[in-house]
Each structure stands twice: as C-alpha cells, then as structure tokens.
Amino acid sequence: MPTLHTVNKSPFERNSLATCLERAAGGDGVLLCEDAVIGARKGSAFAKALAEKAATCAIYALAPDLAARGIKGEDVVEAVKTVDYSGFVDLAADADRVCAWL
Amino acid sequence: MRFAIVVNEGPYTHQASDSAWQFAKAALAKGHEIFRVFFYHDGVNNATRYTVPPQDDRNLQKLWSELAAEHELDLVVCIAAAQRRGILDADEAKRQGKDGDNIAPGFRISGLGQLIEAGIQADRLVTFGD
Amino acid sequence: MSEKSRKKFLYLNRRAPYGSVYALESLEVVLIGAAFEQDVSLAFLDDGVYQLVEGQDTAGIGMKNFSKTYRALGDFEVRKLFVERESLEARGLKESDLMPIVWEDEDEDWAEKPSIAVVDKAAMAELIAASDVVLSF
Fold first, then answer.
1. Which chains contact A through at least 3 pairs of Cβ atoms less than 8 Å apart?
2. Contact yes or no for B17/B7 (Cβ under 8 A)
3. Model confidence over B23-63: pLDDT tens digits?
4. Domain span at C54
5. Residue among C21, C22, C32 whose CB faces B111 most closely
6. Count of domains in chain C?
7. Domain covering A3-101 in this structure, CATH number
8. Residue B77: Cβ-neighbour burial (10 angstroms; 0-12, 13-18, 19+)
9. Which of B78, B79, B118, B122 is catalytic?
10. What is the ipTM of this complex?
11. Looking at the DSSP assignment, which residues form a beta bridge with residue C42?
C-alpha cells in the first residue's frame, strides 16, 4: 500500500475525514480510529462516502475503538474492514508512509 | 521494521497518548523496533511524574515508563515545548532557577532535532494527536 | 549528509495560527529541521492556509506574531511552500491575500523567486504520495 492515512476525529466534529478521503489515492489505505469510527456506523451520514471510497481504497476501522463506543461488528458499514492494534501495526508496516489527518 | 512514534497530546484529555501506547505495545509484541517516541506540543505533559490519577484509572505516565524500562525505549520530550509547559529535568530546573524537577523515569528532554532524526532513521513515522 | 540519506519530509499544516499552537510549533520544527539538510516541502491546506495570510496583527490578542518568520524560510533553504487552491477558495481567499515569500537563487545572481506555489487538490495528493515522512500538525 502506498500510503496509510489515519483519521482520529469524528467526521461530525472536524473535516479531517472528508479532507483525507478527497486526497487519498487509489490503492491507499484509510484507518479510522478513536472518534473517527463514529463515521463507520451503518446509516451514518458518512456511510455512503466510505462505501464509495472503498471501491479504490481499503477502509479500516479500529475494532477496540468501535467496541468502546458500543458499535458492534454487524453495525459497521460493510465495505469497512475492522482491525485491532496488531492489524494497525501491520498496515503501517506494509505502507510506504503513514499520513495522519489530525 | 523500525518505527518512530510521535505523541502530540497530553494524557487524559485526548485519547492520543493511549492510542500511541497501544500501538507501541502491539508493534513491540510483533518484534518490531521502536527507534524513538517523541512527545511534542501538549504531549510533553505525559512526562510528569506528579500525576495522580484515581486508582481505578490507567496511569499513562507509568505505562510509558514501564514500557520504556521493559524494552529500553527512547522517550524524548521536546525541550522547547516542555519549557513552555513546565516539564523539567534536574539540569533544566537548576538552569532555569526552578525549585524542583518533575520528569518521570524513562523520559529524557532534548531538542526538536530528535524528531527530525527519528524521521530519518525510522522506516515509518506514526503520529498520534488531537 | 549524503544524498542517499536525504529523505523527503512533508509538513502537513491544516490549522490556523493563534487559535492553537500547532502552526507555531510546526514552524519551529521546520527551522530546526533545516539544519539536517533534508528535502523539505510545506503543505498548507484547510485552515492551514491562514498561516500565510498577509496582514496578521496580533497586538490585540497579546500573542507573538510569528508570520514574518515564514518570509525568512528561504534563508533556511526551505523553498517549497504548497498552498491548496480549493482550501483558499472555500475560505474566500485568493493567492494575492498571501504574504509574498521568496528565495534568492544563487545561480542566477540572487534573483528572487517565489517560494509559494498554489496547487490543486490532486497535486496535494501527489505531494503526499511522493514523500518519505509526513509530519502532521
């Protein structure tokens, strides 16, 4: 993967997710962690944008952050894969660079 | 693989330090090397040993200090950011005429060049912040 | 430092100055980092474009106006400042609202050349893809 993008803020609070999705290139990965996972819930206002972006980028959400916010696996947008911290490390290692959208 | 980690926020207000610690722990468990953890902006507040969180809460300073002791991690606190926020080691306290220091075990205060060096030396730099 | 160990550093600046410390402390990294002779690019997008707006006057808020430091970046061999067009437009800003920032080209009798390049979103994505290390502020 060329770039792993990380987003940690709720898309309802900041524009980080939107900014990131508009600048992530095909083949990149986007990892939602901390409050950003709120956007990955089925039916959220950002579910469609994530599903659409998943056609060209791999979208991930951090499972421990989903669980902490009461979002179950089956509640996550289907195109979004879940990973734990170990998976986060693998994604960072596989990417050529990690770009944080703080 | 050699990672560098940047922590830009203090403990408790934001999840950044928790996330960075979890990432560091997972990376070490997988056999990766952590070249350095650099604490910048309010992230320097992770380095005071004077925090006393309630007993049923995690103690982030202790978690970092323990991880550093176990894996010989290089925990570097930016000196300019630390001076602004009152994080001092014994030498700095003496130089600035302050009546005490507060840096926690395993942390050291150094310059911003350490961040650039981490970017140069590490294969990947991962940033946690607000 | 050998060419081989030169890395492409990209500073991703997305926040306005003064409301938070990130712009100032990003600039401090840039200045210190200059001594390491890496390949440095600065990206300004989202509210980060406000860091380069001309006419900043902080007298009324009691904070140091550090905007003049951007003009000195050329002296530190930092000559590549990329400002995103879409971010400017969304905020009602034009390129002419930004400070003139130049560097002096030694090879052309110290001719002053602009350091700021206004680029579109797609070019910003390419800039990220071409970097080795991204420092986010």
1. B, C
2. yes
3. 999 999 999 999 999 999 999 999 999 999 999 999 999 99
4. 3-136
5. C32
6. 1
7. 3.40.1260.10
8. buried
9. B78
10. 0.97
11. C11, C81
